[in-house]
Design brief:
The chain is mainly alpha-helical and about 140 residues long. The protein contains 8 helices and no strands. Helix 2 packs across helix 3 and helix 3 crosses helix 4. It is elongated and about 45 Å long.
Amino acid sequence: HASAELFVYVKQHLGQPLTRLSETGRAAPLERLKTAVIEASNRGAFTPDEVARTAGLSYRQAQRMAARHGATLRLLIEENRLTLARDLLVRTDNTVETIARLLGYADDRVFRRAFKRSFSLSPSAFRRTRSAGPAASGSRSV
């Protein structure tokens, strides 16, 4: 039963270490992992093991690299999945269930919860708010 103000404060301050790292240029090693996350997701692989393998690292090495820069493999994967989800919701007319399946979620309810936790809107509500604008005319399925 935490207050909304506390939630906002924590969310704002958790993002600051990554922002500071990227501003100082020390996040370059994290780019290797981010690239591996994208490459693995392009193959439909959303596991930390696959990301580590794609980066040419052992699972433990990849974990350590992410931790040194204030992240985790799971966090990097989840951020990528949610970015892809946001794009698919805006640019396609695929159902939420289909998008969840495309992004490797075992259950669309898990996807809906993760999306709402990240964007404070359900996937359907997000789609409605984005499709009201000029980008709505180009919707298509993938």
